């Protein structure tokens, strides 16, 4: 977890970790060990933060990761179409776009929950999200949303084993996949 401080005030947080399936790194970049990649799982910045703070925070985080974790070869993150910008922050931070997949989300009272909360019975059920799902599942509205994959390679040579083809950036707003 990395804090984003602006003029001494904590105005944001970036959370890096494994992918939802930690062993999946090798299916994205062939031969990747679990300690050779990170996923930017969550990012939040206060609206008070100046324009472009998100991409600047990512840039600073990458510089820190290069020094603190030299084994990391690449970073992955996803943008979903709920936000409507289709990953503009990652585009500004020099990530490449590597396609999309569709994931199911459930909306309860304006909050969105990934389908894993609805389909799991393990320890995740005893989380705030799990409790909210259990309390409101009868009101849940299903949304099948695209999640846009962005990758940042710490050095260009690491991109050579990528199992996905880099594509042109999607435009902001509704996204139509190329045929």
Essential attributes:
179 residues, alpha+beta, 7-stranded mixed beta sheet, 5 helices, 22% helix, globular
Give an overview in words.
The protein is of the alpha+beta class. It is built from 5 helices and 7 strands. It has helices at residues 25-28, 53-68, 88-92, 115-119, 128-136, and strands at residues 2-6, 9-17, 37-45, 74-80, 96-108, 111-114, 141-153. Strands 1-2-3-4-7-5-6 form a 7-stranded mixed sheet. β3 (37-45), α2 and β4 form a beta-alpha-beta unit. It starts with a strand and ends in a 26-residue tail after the last strand.
Mean pLDDT: 89
Q: Please state roughly what percent of the residues sit in beta strands, choosing from under 5%, 5-15%, 15-25%, 25-35%, 35-45% or over 45%.
A: 25-35%
Low-confidence stretches: none
Widest β-sheet, arrangement of strands: 1-2-3-4-7-5-6
Report the radius of gyration as a whole number of Å.
17 Å
Topology (elements, then pairings):
Layout: E1 2-6, E2 9-17, H1 25-28, E3 37-45, H2 53-68, E4 74-80, H3 88-92, E5 96-108, E6 111-114, H4 115-119, H5 128-136, E7 141-153
Parallel strand pairs: 3-4
Antiparallel strand pairs: 1-2, 2-3, 4-7, 5-6, 5-7
